[in-house]
Amino acid sequence: MAPKNLPWPEKGERAFVAGDSEESLHLDSIMTHFPQHAESFKLAAEMVIDAYQNRPRLGHRDELFFPIVYLYRHSIELKLKDVIQVGMAERFFTPRDKEKLRGTPATAEKNAKRGILQDHNLVKLWGYVRKLLIAKFPNDIQEAVSATEPIIQEFHRVDPTGQVLRYERDNDGERHQYGTVPEFVSLENLRSKVDKVFTFLDCCQSCLIEELSGWDGP
């Protein structure tokens, strides 16, 4: 059955090997104090869009909706969590907030409870970020907060759990639905709006970090 001209795996091959070319990825060069996970997923989405828009022979690939939107959604989720981590370092959140965010371990009397930071609910994450930002910048960001909220809610409706865009079907075998997404999605608009949300959250995070001295990150 082995094909002669198809690239099947061969014995001894490995996926992760050392490289010394410009195309290699140097892990030690990644910032350690503030890991760039959120930025990297956003960059990956942008690179997919760039490659698609400059395609000479790929044709029209509507299925790229799934990885592009997932990468953008995940970058927003991670950025929200980054901002919350700074708020926790500033001791902004109440003990009750921290319990909800971090969850509680199992005891002899009750089971463990997952925290919001361990989950993927954008609306809940945004609720804590919104609370933090309005308290810290009451006179500067009201309009931006109001404009950011419906965009985050859009991504939540498309994928409430962080799993919808990753899989074709749910656990019952039913095809996933994607909220109120229009039939034709503008990639340019999607990219522009995510960039604005990300820039806003990144600026707020930077301002919050400036208030901290000697914080080494989450």
Architecture overview:
This protein is 49% helix and 2% strand. By secondary structure, the chain is mostly helical. It has a domain at 34-92 and 121-210. Strands 1-2 form a two-stranded antiparallel ribbon. A hairpin with an 8-residue loop joins strand 1 (103-104) and strand 2 (113-114).
Name some characteristics of this structure.
mainly alpha, 2 strands, 218 residues, two-stranded antiparallel sheet, 49% helix, 6 helices
Number of helical stretches of at least 4 residues: 6
Helix percentage? 40-55%
Coarse shape? globular
Contiguous uncertain segments of 5+ residues: none
Range of strand content: under 5%
Sketch the topology as an H/E string, one letter per element. Answer: HHHEEHHH
Class from secondary-structure proportions: mainly alpha
Radius of gyration: 21 Å
Mean pLDDT, to the nearest integer, reads: 90
Distance between the termini: 51 Å
Give the oligomeric state: single chain
Sheet with the most strands: spatial strand order? 1-2
- The total of beta strands comes to 2
Summarize it.
The chain is 49% helix and 2% strand.
Present the secondary structure layout.
Elements: H1 37-53, H2 65-89, H3 95-102, E1 103-104, E2 113-114, H4 122-136, H5 142-158, H6 187-210
Antiparallel strand pairs: 1-2
